[in-house]
What does this fold into?
Amino acid sequence: MWKILANVDNPFYQKGLKKLFDVIPLWANIIFIIIFLSLSIFLFFWFFKKTKDTMKNYKKEQLEEYRNKYPKNKNISYEQTGMFIPPLVRIKTYWPIFVAIVFAFIGISWAVGSTISTL
It folds into this structure.
């Protein structure tokens, strides 16, 4: 099988990946690594602070609205109402964790010097 891959006329297989460190100076690479990893850490911790408060407030407002619509059910919990948080609100609330993961992958691949490859 390796003989087949060695005879392939694709320049990607023959030349290999160009390292990031060959293109950009070392000081710029270090700056980019620090920027991406610090953004990742910042967004990760901001996610926990923001999400907890946002979800509590949204559920509280939703429960108050439910109690105004159905005054007979005053002593009911949020879980017993059958309500849920809409997907759009979840996306607006949970976007920092996804961006933090992306920045972490970018920072790590920049620190290693190449992307993850199967070659």
Residues 26-69 form the longest helix (44 residues). Confidence is low (pLDDT under 50) at residues 13-17. The chain has one domain: 12-118.
